[in-house]
Design brief:
A 7-stranded mixed β-sheet has the order 3-4-2-1-5-6-7, with helices on both faces. Strands 9-8-11-10-12-13-16 form a 7-stranded mixed β-sheet, sandwiched between helices. The protein contains 9 helices and 16 strands. It has helices at about 20-30, 60-70, 80-90, 105-120, 160-170, 190-200, 215-225, 260-270, 280-290, and strands spanning about 10-15, 35-40, 45-50, 55-60, 70-75, 95-100, 120-125, 130-135, 135-140, 150-155, 175-180, 205-210, 230-235, 245, 250-255, 275. Helix 7 packs parallel to helix 8. Helices cover about 35% and strands about 25% of the residues.
Length: about 290
Amino acid sequence: MAIHLTKESKILVQGMTGGEGMKHTRRMLAAGTNVVGGVNPRKAGRTVDFDHRSVPVFGSVAEGMDATGADVTVVFVPPAFTKAAVTEAADAGIGLAVVITEGVPVHDSVAFLDHARRRATRVIGPNCPGLISPGQSNAGIIPADITKPGRIGLVSKSGTLTYQLMYELRDIGFSTCVGIGGDPVVGTTHIDCLAAFQDDPDTDLIVLIGEIGGDAEESAAAYIRDHVTKPVVGYIAGFTAPEGRTMGHAGAIVSGSSGTARAKQQALEAAGVRVGRTPTETARQVLAVLDA
């Protein structure tokens, strides 16, 4: 099993005919992902050739779903059009929308996330690398060749750190890796993924990657304490960040002890989570738990 994405997932790509959409659709297909169509109202009725696979282009998400049975969409559209793209997908009844786009205005994200929740569409992102269930499916921009299927679940705010931990633990492998995005407002949270991994019989251990700013990791720690029985290993980016300065793509401002890596580490450790100070140390912590 895996969470949110399996080999049965049928994927549309909104913005497939653009430069980024074309590049990453080709990579998704190479990873074995079942991409069943693209969406571009100006190019509806055409097909796009990707090596040995021709993918049809539909005029809308609803049309693509009707023709293919798609249940996932990956959004590669510019920030100004992301709200409309996700709203369209939710109105069509898609189950999962993976929003890769960076630079989406926060008020747009708030609006389309609320709309998607009311339509029962799960959103991952925005400003995220997507998710991958190695050996099954890859929805987004995560490299598929740096790890293998296994029994670790990973949830991360950071795309780069997602890739690094996947590589560090490539000999063990992963059930699913989810990059939830680092924007102030995202559709799927650490807690959402923790709950899903807790319920997944093929996930034995969970890796949680956070970063300074906000209180998402403290909330996750409280959830772990009360609801998660599987071992969790964590890493918080930003131990060396100076106070009072905006840091990274999350725009996280650290003030006093609030939002610091140390405060997040303390909250997680109080919930029984082992926390590494570097990605490599975090990987060693995972190996130690698995060997125990």
